[in-house]
Automatic annotation (TrEMBL):
<dbReference type="InterPro" id="IPR011765">
    <property type="entry name" value="Pept_M16_N"/>
</dbReference>
<dbReference type="GO" id="GO:0006508">
    <property type="term" value="P:proteolysis"/>
</dbReference>
<feature type="domain" description="Peptidase M16 C-terminal">
    <location>
        <begin position="190"/>
        <end position="367"/>
    </location>
</feature>
<keyword id="KW-0732">Signal</keyword>
<feature type="domain" description="Peptidase M16 N-terminal">
    <location>
        <begin position="36"/>
        <end position="175"/>
    </location>
</feature>
<keyword id="KW-0862">Zinc</keyword>
<dbReference type="GO" id="GO:0046872">
    <property type="term" value="F:metal ion binding"/>
</dbReference>
<dbReference type="InterPro" id="IPR011249">
    <property type="entry name" value="Metalloenz_LuxS/M16"/>
</dbReference>
<dbReference type="GO" id="GO:0008237">
    <property type="term" value="F:metallopeptidase activity"/>
</dbReference>
<keyword id="KW-0378">Hydrolase</keyword>
<keyword id="KW-0645">Protease</keyword>
<dbReference type="InterPro" id="IPR050626">
    <property type="entry name" value="Peptidase_M16"/>
</dbReference>
<protein>
    <submittedName>
        <fullName>Predicted Zn-dependent peptidase</fullName>
    </submittedName>
</protein>
<keyword id="KW-0482">Metalloprotease</keyword>
<dbReference type="Pfam" id="PF05193">
    <property type="entry name" value="Peptidase_M16_C"/>
</dbReference>
<comment type="similarity">
    <text>Belongs to the peptidase M16 family.</text>
</comment>
<dbReference type="InterPro" id="IPR007863">
    <property type="entry name" value="Peptidase_M16_C"/>
</dbReference>
Length: 441
């Protein structure tokens, strides 16, 4: 009884913290279709200016993969009013830092400056959109940069091509079948005109959201946003093709050889629904239940108790159209892939047939309350959340309300979602291991 009261008390405390952290924001549209979101936070003299474009790897052509990620690099090359090589110098000289990242679904750029540099930050992001310089020297330079990144992060990194192996087996029609890094021969074959056309199609104000967060004066921020972004012409509406995958009804068996690894990895991957669905959030909870921390079910069973695995983990890779639910394990000694799968499947079947304990469910609720608080604990985190919820989820208010979806999940939901998606005939089984030695003739 005492433990129950303590747990309830912890929940109440987390709930009140989450409630106290409600994110206030203001949003409006410019005439050119740019959506603008303002979030004031006067706790520190810092400003974050970010732009998220609704373009990612899934918007590429099968013979021109890697374009979205390439632009993440290319659009730091320079603009009509920022000379080549000067972008990072300007940011650093004014006490700031900046970065960008690309996913299958979107590309995100941001600057963090002392709050007295808000006008500079807004101007620089408007320059990236209005006056990018896309020429052959920039393309050639960044082509080499991307190739080196691929060598370091993928080709020469142990287990670096796991997602490539998973995606090309789980997806046959959808562009999720390739990775954002793309294929280098596609970038090599692309013409300058193709890069310019990609920019013209996707880098338009009506395909983006601008977020300004931190310490600023609202009227002044609006004035500068309209001054620098308002004159940018509206682009043609982006037409997106819808891709659908046939259900997986029989286990897909695949192998992948990686010369950088010595210990084989066994993976089970399931195609799952859009991150916008409640089921995707339930799968988040299932992955936490199975493998978040050393007390989780799979880790305790396979690593601590039975000592059949060096490592085991489960995670839900949610995306805009589909997701991938992945469970992986590294064997201890000569334990076979089949034995690892057997141990994993026993835990999944247990979830499918039985309600998880009240105590385990309470732990899950506590963790997700804590995750919610942490996700909105920094101005940078809030800025990206506001952009993502508006652009990808179509509901910016999720920045404050998504936790209610997690709170609504029941033990019965966990059981039913596990039954719905995590079945052997609905998955890919991937044996990812060392390259086999070739027998001399």
């Amino acid at each position: 009884m005492k433990k129950t009261l303590m747990a309830l008390g912890a929940m109440a405390m987390l709930g009140s913290t989450a409630q106290a952290q409600k994110v206030a924001f203001e949003e409006f549209d410019l005439d050119n279709g740019l959506h603008v979101v303002l979030h004031q936070d006067n706790s520190a003299p810092v400003i974050i200016t970010s732009v998220m474009y609704h373009v990612g790897a899934k918007d590429e052509q099968p013979n021109r993969t890697g374009f979205a990620h390439f632009f993440e690099h290319l659009l730091f090359e320079g603009t009509k009013n920022i000379e080549r090589g000067e972008w990072f110098k300007i940011v650093t000289a004014n006490g700031g830092n900046n970065n960008a990242n690309t996913s299958d679904d979107r590309t995100y750029y941001y600057e963090v400056f002392p709050s007295n540099n808000l006008e500079l930050a807004i101007w620089m992001e408007s320059e990236r959109l209005m006056h990018p310089v896309i020429n052959q020297i920039g393309v050639d330079t960044q082509n080499e940069v991307v190739k080196e990144e691929k060598r370091l992060r993928k080709d020469n990194q142990p287990y670096g091509n796991i997602f490539k192996a998973i995606k090309q087996n789980l997806f046959k029609n959808h562009p999720y079948r390739w990775e954002p890094i793309g294929e280098m021969e596609h970038l090599d074959a692309a013409t300058l005109e193709e890069f310019q056309a990609f920019n013209k199609k996707f880098y338009v104000p009506n395909n983006a959201v601008l977020v300004v967060a931190g310490q600023f004066e609202t009227a002044q921020a609006k004035e500068w946003i309209k001054k620098y972004f308002g004159a940018i012409p509206k682009g043609a509406p982006v037409q997106r093709q819808k891709f659908e995958e046939a259900p997986i009804t029989t286990t897909i068996n695949a192998t992948w050889e990686d010369p950088n690894v010595q210990i084989p990895m066994t993976l089970a991957a399931y195609r799952t629904p859009s991150m916008k669905t409640k089921d995707a959030r339930v799968l988040d909870m299932i992955s936490t239940y199975l493998s978040d921390g050393k007390s989780s079910k799979l880790y305790k069973k396979m690593v601590d108790d039975k000592k059949v695995a060096l490592q085991v983990g489960a995670f839900n890779n949610s995306q805009e159209d589909y997701g991938q639910y992945i469970i992986y394990s590294l064997p201890l000694g000569d334990v076979s892939s089949e034995n690892l799968l057997k141990e994993i499947d026993e835990e999944i079947v247990n979830i499918q047939n039985n309600l998880i304990s009240e105590n385990d469910f309470q732990k899950l609720q506590n963790k997700f309350e804590n995750n919610y608080v942490n996700s909105n604990a920094s101005v940078e985190g809030i800025a990206e959340n506001l952009a993502s919820y508006y652009l990808l989820y179509g509901d910016i208010n999720l920045v404050n309300t998504e936790i209610e979806i997690y709170r609504s999940i029941t033990r019965e939901d966990i059981r039913e979602v596990a039954k719905k998606y995590l079945n052997p005939n609905q998955r890919l089984v991937l044996k990812y291991g060392p390259a086999k030695e070739k027998t001399a003739k």
